[in-house]
Amino acid sequence: MSDNPTRPLIEMAAVSKFFGDFQALRNIDLVVHKGERIVVCGPSGSGKSTLIRCINRLEKHNEGIITIDGIELTDKVADIDAVRREVGMVFQSFNLFPHMSIIKNLMIAQQLVRKTPKKEAREIAMHYLQRVKIPEQAEKYPIQLSGGQQQRVAIARALCMKPKIILFDEPTSALDPEMINEVLDVMVDLADEGMTMICVTHEMGFARSVADRIIFMDEGEIIEQASPADFFDNPENERTSAFLDQILKH
Amino acid sequence: MSFDLNLVLESLPQMLAGFGITLKLLLVSGSLGLVLAIVLLLMRMSGKFYLDWLAQIYIYVFRGTPILVQIFIIYYGLPQFEAVRDSVFWSILREPTGCAILALTLNTGAYVSEILRGGVLGVDKGLLEAGSALGMSARHKLIYITTPLATRLALPAYSNDVISLLKSTALASTITIADMTGIARTIVADTYAPYEVFISLAIVYMIFTLAIQKLFGLFERYLSRHTRRED
Ligand SMILES: Nc1ncnc2c1ncn2[C@@H]1O[C@H](COP(=O)(O)OP(=O)(O)OP(=O)(O)O)[C@@H](O)[C@H]1O
Ligand SMILES: [Mg+2]
After folding, report:
1. Which of A209, B37, B96, B159 is deepest in the core (most CB within 10 A)?
2. Average pLDDT for consecutive 10-residue bins of chain A (250 residues)?
3. Contacts of residue A162 in chain B, CB cutoff 8 Å?
4. Chain B partners within 8 Å of A81 (Cβ)
5. Where are the alpha helices (DSSP H) in A76-176?
6. For residue A250, how many other CB atoms are within 10 A of its CB?
């Protein structure tokens, strides 16, 4: 896995995914290079979550090839583990471990997966808690934090594993409006530092200012890929314009 | 009809002499049953259909028949087989206590494995996905995520099962064991005073049940410490 600067970090070629008879992804081609910031949007059920969940194998694709940093995703557990060490994920519902303190949430995978010694794991955890600006919450349990704080902890937890890519699945959709910005701020910081990110979100302000490329999906297909300027100002596809009209109306 | 308080005061200490046996039946079959339940649970979750089926059939049989009948089958039925009498288990099965413990264990194991399965199924799948996304192996997820959360979820139903196990131990008296109920029956046979004796006995069981409830309540409180917002 030598770092070849020209090789894409994520390559999906003709990827399809079925749930029984239902086809959730149709022939997806997607290439993401190091440092790219991709925003994925589209109507509910269009396959956005399925797309990013295939990247870290939370879902198994049925056709096509997915290669992450040179590792092809197959049934091989060692390859799946290798990919998951490179790919972090942040969920809509935070998914913090409720029975562990915040600091423990950040340390556990470091200790188990990376075999980081406890002391060092704690230092790394505190470092990232500081970066998401809640070091004082370290000893609390998730339920004692606000939604925005919990989501920032979830981002810090992903960062503790030093991933090359972070996937976000609607990270602000479960938040009260007044907490959305504190989470988006953390994501903007990450983008500024050059993290490769794929972000499913309907926060169009964030998409416009942060994304290098916006992907619009509908019915399991990528309908349009464009820079924010083109995407918002001259969408090529009718379905994209219809979607934008819908979402920007609010 | 008069209520003879003296008789109560006399018979209580005698019945309490059987408390040790009742406690032994409860603790030994309770812990062996828990081990059995975990084995059955792992079989059901193994993803291997033959292990799953085997466990399901076992559970079906033991939940579908009265425990008293199971005790009788083990106590009266098994010694009929020479193979059983020749086996290493004979030293256990020739004793009524061994038979009672075996029957109670096999029975509670079936119930508790279903209770534990309910706990496992109740664990939020999102948490397991978060574990996977962090690179945790199936074993890590089982140990660090599923087990602690499922334990907490299963605890109220489990404490009910321990209480019903306590009450099932009384059935041991039907195969000559001198547990609290066995002793009470002997006293009744001597004194012809079932009313006083059995009411005293019932009160002893109630106190015992209360103690078990309190104990589990404390454990539940401990395991739920992270679900309280104020600390
Ligand atoms: N585990 C599953 N089993 C069956 N169907 C599924 C499963 N997961 C997703 N689907 C279906 O696949 C389609 C795509 O789902 P997906 O969650 O990827 O959509 P989405 O674009 O993320 O939608 P949303 O905006 O609502 O999150 C939907 O029709 C959904 O019902
Ligand atoms: Mg989704």
Report:
1. B37
2. 73 96 96 96 96 97 96 94 96 96 97 96 97 94 95 97 97 94 95 96 94 96 94 89 83
3. none
4. 135, 137
5. 77-86, 102-109, 118-131, 147-160
6. 6
